[in-house]
Write a structure and sequence with these properties.
alpha/beta; Beta-carbonic Anhydrase, Chain A; 2 domains; 6-stranded mixed β-sheet; 6 strands; 48% helix; 17% strand
Length: 212
């Protein structure tokens, strides 16, 4: 069976599940808008689909996926407009109550950043320009832990990048306003592929605690 055939068979199972539960399907399509209470900024990595690893159903999570689950700062020049537009849509139009940035171990996008910094080269193409959002904290990790193995450096930078994204979220006025009045909660999660554990960042201390 080809990979595409496997996808089609998977869709057939998905379709059968909905046919066996028509009430839920009807609720989803009859609503004026999609119903998620949670938005998640996650990585494009095929191993860390947030709906799969949280065992969520259709309509549960509004998901923005990009390389290395990064959130850029608000830009008056409309840089990274696609990511900014998704954040605006989730917060202002869907009125999500929780916005989670979820990083993960062995992130290839962060790996490209770390290797570029080790090579001491400047960003020269779209991937490098995008991951440069996390360059300040990655530079600190490499400076403070020169003897750390490369894989561990990448994981440490992935963890540090969560703080950058959470800080950058507050540069969006509609996020900062809702967070200040308590109608929007910002959280940083880290999924460890090796151990299948989920951790949460405490932005005040920079420490991670085990969620599950």
């Amino acid at each position: 069976m080809s990979d595409v055939d496997a996808l089609i068979e998977g869709f057939a199972r998905y379709k059968a599940a909905y046919q066996n539960n028509p009430e839920r399907h009807q609720r989803l399509i009859s609503q004026q808008r999609q119903p998620p209470r949670v938005m998640m900024v996650a990585c494009c990595d095929s191993r860390v689909d947030p709906a799969i690893i949280t065992d969520s159903r259709a309509g549960d999570i509004f998901v923005l996926r990009n390389i290395a689950n990064l959130v850029p700062p608000m830009s008056e020049q409309h840089r990274y407009a696609e990511t900014s537009a998704a954040i605006e849509f989730g917060v202002c139009y869907l009125e999500v109550e929780t916005l989670i940035v979820m990083g993960h171990s062995r992130c290839g996008g962060i790996g490209t950043l770390v290797n570029r910094l080790i090579d001491e080269s400047l960003p020269s193409h779209p991937l490098e320009e995008w991951t440069a959002i996390a360059e300040p904290v990655a530079t600190e990790v490499l400076r403070d832990h020169p003897q750390m193995p490369l894989d561990q450096k990448i994981c440490a930078c992935s963890r540090a990048a969560l703080s950058v994204s959470l800080t950058n979220l507050l540069t969006y006025p509609w996020v900062a306003e809702r967070e200040a009045r308590g109608s929007l909660s910002l959280r940083g999660w880290y999924f460890n592929l090796a151990t299948a554990e989920l951790e949460e960042l405490d932005p005040a201390t920079g420490e991670f605690s085990l969620l599950c």
